[in-house]
Amino acid sequence: MSPAREGVGLRHVYAWHAPYRKALIAWCNLGLVLWVCVGHAAMRNLSIEELARKADAIVLGTVTQQASAWDDQHTAIHTDVTVEVEQVLTGLPGEVVTLRVLGGVVGGVGMGTSNDATFLVGERVIVCLDTNAVPSTVVGMQQGKFTVEDNTVIRADETWSLNEFIAAVHTAAP
Predict the structure, then answer these.
(1) What dotted CATH number matches 48-172?
(2) Fewer CB under 10 Å: which end of the chain, C or N?
(3) What is the β-pairing status of strands 96-102 and 145-149?
(4) Does pLDDT of 141 surpass 90?
């Protein structure tokens, strides 16, 4: 065999397959990214009853303060939310509750997640809490936080009267 002819066919085969190989790799990567993103974004809807059973405490109160800070590794921002308790629905949380959620703004740098609850100072809320964590966290992430406006409890596109909601919590709580 002559050295000039060696590899000519291989270069031709690689050159012919290169665009198809790149397209196949691109489609596989896109499929993998979409599959991973959908898997992380999907969250099973938790009912009031499930949240009440999982929570150590459930409180109705008003958000009085928020303080955002970097974690110790300076890789993520969290926000400590203070809620003045108006009514304890379950558990023994105390008159004031401080809970932590991921996300917030520190020095003009913001971080947010699609699953964690967000709060506003002055907002009246019902929060399902895991008080075993220090500081407390919201059970069910965003699903464990309900906004209360004019005695109507609101979560996403669901609404209940405040009295119906409280009765459902008392019925479901252990």
Answers:
(1) 2.40.50.120
(2) N
(3) unpaired
(4) yes
